[in-house]
Each structure stands twice: as structure tokens, then as C-alpha cells.
From TrEMBL:
Organism name: Fusarium sporotrichioides
One Gene Ontology cellular component: cytosol
Annotated protein name in UniProt: Nadph-dependent fmn reductase
One Pfam entry name: FMN_red
Gene3D superfamilies for the chain: 3.40.50.360
Length: 293
């Protein structure tokens, strides 16, 4: 399972990357917790996202169109890679940072149905920002863990706060965060549990008509086999919004075989790949699909 550890702060200087790195050390240092998972750091600041400037609503990508700006394309491609997420977020002025909300709002279908942990930091642990992002992600149909660690700077408005403002993690705060390792590991265990349950039977079917009635299909990634969710299908083939969170009992064939004329059974349609591409705007999959019988 691939998990993105997302550093949400985009300020300069900032302490976020150091807190995210410590969170990663805590998780990977526990053999049981990190088993069968790969945690990959993702820094929102690296994508230079301006206030949303695309000309299409994220919820309509890719069914009605595509992103056109390089930064949006790169961000979408990155987030779509992962099975789950750990957000490490700051709190500014008793609330969620604008850069964090903007990055979340850039996308929609890339997030749907996936597991996520929110870990906040701030003078009082960033509790307000933590609660706000939890509410947002739940509303966007992500599976949010019950445990959301809030990491406070040592002594609140003390020396470590000013160190953080300069981009440094104070030693006392570092010790305090390490002392919260059990809570961080508990949240991570909940995330793994949510990810393992991301099977077709667990997903809420929210489409309409035939699209919401299908069962399951298997998808082969380079890293192995896993269940293919509706959100994956949305990214793979450009399906209509009605099927975005549903799962399917459809036989997929390798795209090369399709080009040779093998028929593809889709919702309300059966025909060649060329015909399907016109009917469903089928795009090149972001995953490798194997022949199936």
C-alpha cells in the first residue's frame, strides 16, 4: 500500500517538513506499523499551486474535460498514485491554512473513497485546523480515521514557538512529539485498517441507474494486485460522475488486445475500443490492465 505523507505548509520559513519527517521516523521505526506499506513524502510547496485557476470544476475531471495547467496536471497525477494519505498540517489564526484548503480543493475524484489521517501542529496542537480538515475530507467522501493527533509546541507560546517560526524544531517539542508516538501509531493503524477495507462491498454506492449496481473488478498495478474502486475507474477511463464512487463487475482487457477488436462490456455499451473511446471518452489508463476471462 502506497501512502502519501503530505506536508501542507507552504510558508517560508516553515517547520512542517521537519515535523512530517519525525512522524515518518516514528511510523517506519515500528516494524509492525510499517509492514506492507510504503510512505512517500509529498510537499505541497513543490507544486507551486496558485489559487485555483483551472477552467473546469475538479468534480468534472475527467468525465467532462481535463486540467490544462501544468501545476494542476502534476498535482492530480501525484495524488492519484496513492492508496491513502497522511496530512501534516499547520494551524494559522485558529484555523486551516489557505494553502492546505486550496490544495485539497484543486482535486476531487483523485481523493474519493481513500483513507486519510490528519495530524496537526501549532501552539495548542492545531486542534481547530484539525477539526476543520477532518470535516472537509469527510464531506469529500474520504475515509477519515477516528484518531487525529494534535502536536503542540512545547509550553505553547514559548521558545519553541519562535524556533518553529524560523523553521526549526525545538528539542523539547521533538521530545513531546515522540512521547505522542502511541497516538500517531494508533492513527496509522486505523488508516491501514481503512485501506484494507477499501473493497467494493465497503464502498457506499452513490451513483444512479445501472452504474451503481455493479460488483467488483481486479486491477493489476506494477506493485501487485488490488481491488479497483470506482474512483480508480474514474481516473482510468473517464467515466461519468454517476459511477465515480461505485464499483463494477466488468471484465477489463489489456488495451493492446482491445485495439485488436476485442469487445469491451461497459455500462450500457458493448463494442470495440475505438467505439468505446467515442462513447465513454476512454483515456489511456494510469494503471496496467491485464487480460481477464
Amino acid at each position: 500500500m502506497k501512502i502519501a505523507l503530505i506536508t501542507a505548509s507552504t510558508r517560508t520559513p516553515r517547520v512542517g517538513p521537519k515535523i512530517a519527517s519525525l512522524v515518518q521516523e516514528i511510523i517506519t521505526g515500528d516494524v509492525g506499523a510499517s509492514q506492507n506499506t510504503k510512505i512517500i513524502p509529498v510537499d505541497i510547496a513543490d507544486f507551486n499551486l496558485p489559487v485555483f485557476d483551472e477552467t473546469i470544476m475538479p468534480a468534472l475531471v475527467p468525465s467532462k474535460g481535463s486540467f490544462t495547467k501544468p501545476h494542476a496536471i502534476a498535482w492530480s497525477s501525484e495524488i492519484a498514485k496513492y492508496d491513502g494519505y497522511i496530512f501534516v498540517i499547520p494551524e494559522y489564526n485558529h484555523g486551516l491554512a489557505g494553502g492546505t484548503k486550496n490544495a485539497v480543493d484543486y482535486l476531487y475524484n483523485e481523493w474519493i473513497g481513500k483513507g486519510v489521517v490528519v495530524i496537526s501542529y501549532g501552539i495548542f496542537g492545531g486542534k481547530s485546523a484539525n477539526e476543520q480538515l477532518n470535516q472537509v475530507l469527510k464531506g469529500m467522501k474520504l475515509q477519515v480515521t477516528e484518531t487525529s493527533p494534535a502536536l503542540a509546541f512545547h509550553d505553547g507560546v514559548g521558545p519553541d514557538l519562535w524556533l518553529a517560526g524560523a523553521g526549526d524544531l525545538g528539542e523539547d517539542t521533538r521530545k513531546d512529539i515522540i512521547a505522542q508516538s502511541p497516538e500517531i501509531l494508533k492513527a496509522f493503524a486505523e488508516l491501514k485498517g481503512l485501506m484494507e477495507k477499501q473493497s467494493p462491498k465497503e464502498v457506499t454506492k452513490q451513483g444512479s441507474g445501472k452504474a451503481a449496481e455493479f460488483g467488483a473488478v481486479s486491477c493489476f498495478y506494477k506493485t501487485g494486485i488490488r481491488r479497483l474502486l470506482g474512483s480508480d475507474l474514474f481516473m482510468c477511463a473517464g467515466w461519468c460522475t454517476a459511477v465515480a464512487t461505485a464499483c463494477f463487475d466488468i471484465v477489463f482487457y489489456e488495451m493492446g488486445a482491445l485495439r485488436k477488436g476485442v469487445t469491451l462490456g461497459l455500462v450500457g455499451f458493448e463494442g470495440t475500443a475505438a467505439e468505446a473511446s467515442k462513447f465513454y471518452k476512454v483515456r489511456k489508463p494510469r494503471v496496467t490492465l491485464k487480460n481477464s476471462v
